[in-house]
Amino acid sequence: MTHRITVLPKIADARAAGILRHLQNLFPKVKLTGVKTASAYTVDAVLSRDQVQRAAERLTNPVIEDFSIDTVPTPEGYSYAIEIGFLPGVTDNVGHTAKQTIEDATSRTSSEGEAVYTSLFVFLSGDISQDDAVRFAAELHNPLIERAKIYKAGDAFEMVVPKITLGLPQEPIAVDLEVADDELERIGRDGILDMSGTRRGPLALSVEEMKAIRQYFRKEKRKPTDVELESIAGTWSEHCKHTIFNDPLDEIKQGIYRTYIKGATQKIRKQKGKKDFCISVFKDNSGAIAFDKDYLVTHKVETHNSPSGLDPFGGSVTAIVGVNRDCLGFGLGAKPIANIYGFFVADPTDSRQLFRDKEKKQQLLPARRILEGVVKGINAGGNQSGIPTPLGFVAVDPSFRGKPLVFGGTVGLIPRKIPSGSRGLARKSYEKKARPGDYIVMLGGRVGLDGVHGATFSSESLTVGSPATAVQIGDPITQKKFSDALIREARDKNLYDSITDNGAGGLSGSVGEMSREAGGCLVDIGAVPLKYPGLAAWQTWISESQERMTLAVPKQRWNAFKKICARHDVEATVIGTFTRSGRVVVRHGGKNVMNVSLNFLHDGRPAKKQKSKRPAAVKMPRGAQNARKEVFLKRAVLDVLARPSVGSISFISRQYDHEVLAQTITKPLQGRGSVGADAAVLQPLPDSKRGIVLAHGYTPWYSQIDTYAMAAAAIDTAVRNAVCAGASRAYLAILDNFCWSSSERQERLYELKRAAQACCDIAVAYGTPFISGKDSMHNDFKGFTEEGERIHIAALPTLLVSAIGVIPDVTKTQTLDFKMPGDSIYLLGATNDELGASEYFGTIGAVGGSVPKVDVKKNAKTYDATAKAIDAGLVSSAIGLSRGGLAVALAKSAIAGSLGATVDIRKIPGKARAADSILFSESQGRILVSVRPESAEAFERACKGVAFSKIGEVAHDANVLIQTKGQRIDLGVDDLKDAYRSFFKEW
């Protein structure tokens, strides 16, 4: 029998107040006067009345809540009610936890098929119409994953059980590839033709790749099964094989990854010799550098763009918990100690309606909803996992309206060695190898339809054919439990030989990769635990349902491993055995449904010879120079500060827990004025002053003019930000994350090649090796406008560079806020007339012009001098000049310190002459510092050989006075603060 337990607050309802404020802001003309909420738990299980009562009591906090069983109490005078719950098959994390709570309360174990489904009742009061309620419901739910039911006051509330029922699973089928080229192309594009006559969804395979598969199975003298074809498609996908980066491009026969990214690191490591701190690069789930003689520190940054464009909450929570698993999957398992994030989104005030289909039935979420969703997702994934989030950013551009770019990164800590066996020998923790005879163990969550075609979906543009099943919702609680089981116990007891996460391709990807370590595998797909019955073999094999790891567990250690998992309430299942057969063999019902050689699966894809073409140069729009002449500089400073890519994102920083684990030295909001940091410093070991510095750099706007300059500036910015926090170039590594669009175009490939070349040139010059990276090549939206016109939105070519360094003493780190009146203010580095694609130009509607160039020799001297001065204790504050130039850096330091400044910028080094150029140029390699008067002489000696100028002093009063050629700008710190916080102030 099904029961519904409704829990409602008996004190002030903060959730309801938030919904009321949100709806009133969006619909100011609607006379909505009140909102009440209630949480509902629909229990689909055989329980006695007494058991239901105990369950309700356990789900309720008696101090602040009441409950009702099988009835939904309604507030007096409400007009409409909206019930919002998940659609069948969508992961319901709260429902899963409630089910476990009920099991504890009733001392019973749920039977197969029993479940708890959650929903939210929103009661609306006021003079509102049915149409108003419909609009409210549209705002409060995502129809891709949620259902919303509207009730008028007095209507009976239905009890909905969103159980997924698939019927009998479809048997594996043989796919005929002996067809014409156009049909081969259609199979690759739209998927396998199912028994029902419908296509399953994209394989993202080209005709050439389909022909290679056909030729292989001709030699095998049989047709491929659907399981084999789906598995090959996932393994060969752009998302997994990084084909654009690895295939030959023009004269670059080894591909741009081996030539420019991996090649750069090889050169740098050779140059460093005995001072090389890299331990594991480009061969594991994360990259790792030495932290000290006993520990390594790992780092990995991932993207989850396509799913976040459909369901921003599910996409982003999966992004962060997914990259947490990349940390857990490094070596034998690193402990996640910090998360970082980055959101490239459209202006949240962009009200354009866009649709994936011409019939306008598949609407993209508004830009505002996407930003709100990704913020909540990273919050849920990080906070609920107990991992601090000390660093992040938001960047805004119209090109991210179709697909947002959602970055999540995780830093990990792992001992260099762990015990191995009874003889007390130590094993290198960063080396792993599945062995023939090891059990294949799946750990964590169960498998469902969510995540089917995730790898191939992410290898294409977002279109009408993009499958909703590719979206997953992560479960950080389940992941936290198996993380503790692994890191706290199983790893250090040496209970497994290898581990990796179930990311792209699900079991197909993880088992397929680990099989290369052992030499083969034999899998029983019927042994895989499922969320619900009815999944076909191919769905079980490729589903990317979240919170799963795959391990190689020696048979003699299985019982000990399983006991630890049971103690942590983690499901662990043997689904097969690693072999030395040289093949991936998957069985279903006693029959082989996949039997493919490892060599063909991983190396059989035909390389594509790519060609590029130089694009036309971008020219300065007419009238831009005249617009500059009409600019009122005081107003311009405030306008630039108020732009969303520059202004405060404290509304995010205050949501994300950065103090958990008690390791964060510098904070995401710095100074009394709470200004967003460009870097973070961690102290991972309480008995050591040794620290980790994290920073990032990104300048996608420069791609409109020159992608070489864009990539160079991204690296320069990351290095600069890390140095300002206390890092040194001598112990700094970087990660590259490329997000490209329209990657089939030769012009875009040329831009990619140039960006990769810049990565090599700048990284080698700075001695900063790449230790990990990722690329996402199809960040396009192809759909329709509200008027039914076709539209293609291509994201700006974007490179996010993440820096990680190790410093010997965290007490010597630095922040960006002015500290004391009377401190001298210095500007290090040359300022040139480089306003192309700048934030300032954005305020006057211009793009072209001179984009900032990186002078590595000069900048390296500046960074080394700054690092030396910070280490010597000569610097009171430091901030890198980046978006918005000198004006923004000066304003941020003043706001953060709640102190004014008096500066004269007429004689700063460089070629910039015009006042607006000096203020807003985004020339690279520049740092603004404040120095105590007694340290000024020593500081200037430390900067010998570096272009620098003392431009003023920190002031007692709360005013920033800037003397330029021809005018004096007088800005109150409160006015600067208001502008800086203005854009997201309502968030």
Per CATH, the architecture of the domain at 277-425 and 651-803 is: 2-Layer Sandwich
The major pleated sheet works out as: 7 strands, mixed
Rounded radius of gyration (Å): 29 Å
Q: For the record, what CATH class of the domain at 277-425 and 651-803 applies?
A: Alpha Beta
Q: What percent of residues are in strands?
A: 15-25%
The rounded distance between the terminal residues' Cα atoms is: 43 Å
What is the name of the CATH topology of the domain at 277-425 and 651-803? 60s Ribosomal Protein L30, Chain: A
Number of strands: 38
Structural class: alpha+beta
The average pLDDT value, as a whole number, equals: 93
Determine the fraction of residues in helical runs and give it as a percent range: 25-40%
Please tell me about this protein's structure:
The chain starts with a strand and ends in a 7-residue tail after the last helix. Among the domains are: 151 residues, no CATH class; 302 residues, PurM-like, N-terminal domain (60s Ribosomal Protein L30, Chain: A), CATH 3.30.1330.10; 204 residues, Phosphoribosyl-aminoimidazole Synthetase, Chain A, domain 2, CATH 3.90.650.10. The strands form eight sheets. The chain has a seven-stranded mixed sheet, with helices on both faces. It has a seven-stranded mixed sheet with strand order 33-35-32-36-34-37-38. It is built from 30 helices and 38 strands. Helix 2 packs across helix 3, helix 10 runs parallel beside helix 24 and helix 27 crosses helix 30. A hairpin with a 4-residue loop joins strand 8 and strand 9. About 1% of the residues have low confidence. It is globular and about 80 Å long. It has 987 residues and is an alpha+beta fold.
